[in-house]
Amino acid sequence: MVLEIKHPLLDLLHIGEENARKGKELGAHFGSDDAGVREMVNGLRKQGIPICSSRNGYYMPASDMEGAICGRSLRARAFDILAVAKIFTQFENDSENGQLLLDEELPATHDGE
What we know:
By secondary structure, the protein is mainly α. The protein has a domain of about 70 residues: Arc Repressor Mutant, subunit A (Orthogonal Bundle). Strands 1-2 form a two-stranded antiparallel sheet. A hairpin with a 2-residue loop joins β1 and β2.
């Protein structure tokens, strides 16, 4: 079964990273900013559309390899976000009456500050 999804953003995306379009450029078509474009892209990705992204912008993968590279990049970013989010789990069990409690002494950062 092939799911066909129609969205105006898909008409603006080109195939291949070398043809990527910046979020700002895409946003101009929708009267939106980069955040709005990211929201649209993520919504389409959740529907199964493999929209790639890089520093060059957004694009459709030209090959399986290009899609795999994008997938690895997204997973690496997700793991980084999860690692940082783990720091905040300390607050989940220390809440009282819906308020977060902070320790009086915070651990030093990696650079000693």
